[in-house]
Amino acid sequence: MTERRNYTAAEVLAVMSSRLLKDGQIVFAGVGLPLLAAILAQRTHAPTLTILFEGGTIGAFVEPGQLPPSTNEQRCCRRANMLLPSTDVLLLLQRGYVDIGFMGGAQIDKHGNLNSSFIGDAENPTARLPGTGGGNDIASLTNMIVAMKHEKRRFVEKVDFVTSPGFLDGGRSREKAGLDLGGLFRVVTDLAILGFDEKSRDMKVVALHPGVTAKEIQDNTGFELIIERNVETTPPPTEDELKVLRHLDPDRLYIA
Amino acid sequence: MTAYQELRKKTEARDHSLRERVMSLEEAAGLVKEGDLIGLGGSTMSRTPLAMIWALIRAGAKGHTIARGISCQEGDLTFASGLCNHVITSWMSHGLNWGVSKIMRNYTEQKRAVFEEWSHMAMGLRFRAGAMGLPFLPMRAMMGSDLMGRLPNVKTMECPFTGEKLVAVPALNPDIAFIHVQRCDAYGNAQMDGLPFLDADLAMAANRVVMTTERIISNDQIRRAPDHTRIPFFTVDAVVEVPFGCAPHECYGVYEPFFSHHDYYADLLKKDAEKGVAEYLQRFYYEPKDWNDYLGRLGMAELQDAARRGRSINND
Which end of chain A is more exposed for a tag (fewer CB within 10 A), N or C? Predict the structure, then answer.
């Protein structure tokens, strides 16, 4: 590859996920990279994007350099329209007011199920992870975008534990489990944008990021991806997007 | 007697009169009985009732079950001190900026403590059902996930009207709840700023409530702005004035998290988490002669910095 990149993998991840958010949408954002990408969208192509935080915030504008440590602190409340009890903001998902749920992921499988609870067997885990938070509620009740690093150990055939449901065993199994609506819409990684086959609900590549090959993405995935021959390539991050992003996270907490 | 009759009987037995309930942290810690299920207010690093946790750890309380919507660094301290060996929550770690808690991992992986994991909405609806005097509430999340299989007391049900599949989450009525607010009168009328989290439901659900507050205000001040009162006096059993009662966590509009103290804490636990947390408990929990001594050990510069940041919330 001869092209010189002036951005990090985490910056690609933030920019590419922010582009999936549309102006006017109501987005339920998790802390960390999803939060950063949502603010980036708000400050570039989606000025009327409404960001909801699990803590209970409706429509905050987080200040540059003042990124919150979770979605529950006062930094999440700047210039918000309303502060609700956490239960009631989560119930907005169930009522149907949220267009997109947007969160990070530790481990994902080919049907888009997410694990943030246990690595290994749940009874005797190799690692206990921090757990679902509102992740399960978001994944159960709305269309979701997940942003995560593309690594073989994170993209597995079957997750060790389904913390947040994607399409479960594929096909119509999600609906059969009682989850009539929602589901995983997109997975954004530092290598590609991925989606799911309408019928089998197997993960497929929607577009590769600049300079990424089909072989490279398959080599970094623990199961067989659906990759069409003439798969699209995403336009690289623009100077403007990178500038705004670096302004938002000057300490490079999430974009290093 | 049914569980509901028992709940009503406990409520009836409490003193609901408009009376002063002010006491010290130590006296309030004395309201906790052996085996009590304790509910904690606030969420993650915000309005954590740390002063009561501090007082209870110092009183040598052990083996409690603690329920909170989202847990944070206080979870390390409640595990390591032995105060808690069973947590009911949706998430537990130090906080995103400081990685996955080694103490949470050690205690749960080695089965020294139980981490009972519910979705955040399920936690909220469990407290709400408790607050409503109902045995359960239905919801549409958690279905199809592996969370369901690991929980001892969750069921799927059919809606009696539509036949839809729903999840029934059981009411959670803690024996005692600790809640910290910005201001409260001597009777227990509590007003809070910022995110209300699950606190009003928690207060209504619990069988006893200890309210710690940044400052005690007069009942006249409460009556001038009753629309700001979130928790009524008759649910409250003790009022304790504790300035910086969430330090080193946040109290909206008063102080932000003490970020450099959290860095210090994370560094202390980096090499040997168990040794580090023991050292931390010794220095900040067991040794201080009182709450002011504890705050002194956090440091005046840290206090000032956190307060400056906290108060600047509406500067624009």
Answer: N
B196 touches A: beta carbon within 8 Å: yes
- Domain residue limits, chain B: 3-121+172-314
Does the CB of A158 have a partner CB in chain B at under 8 Å?
A: no
* Domains of chain A and CATH, by start: 9-248 (3.40.1080.10)
Half-sphere exposure of A112 (CA within 13 A, CB side): 34
- Determine the topology of domain B3-121+172-314 in CATH: Glutaconate Coenzyme A-transferase (3.40.1080)
Give per-residue pLDDT as tens, A62-110: 888 888 888 899 999 999 999 999 999 999 999 999 999 999 999 999 9
A63 is catalytic: no
Please report the ipTM that was assigned to this predicted complex. Answer: 0.97
Contact assignment for B146 to A55 by CB distance below 8 Å: no
Chain A residues inside the 8 Å CB shell of B199: 85
Give me the helix-helix angle, B120-132 and A86-95, nearest 10°: 110
Chain A residues lying within 8 Å of B256, measured CB to CB: 73-75
* Chains A & B: contacts with CB separation below 8 Å: 188
Distance separating alpha carbons of residues A71 and B43, to the nearest angstrom: 9
**pLDDT(A2) > 70:** no
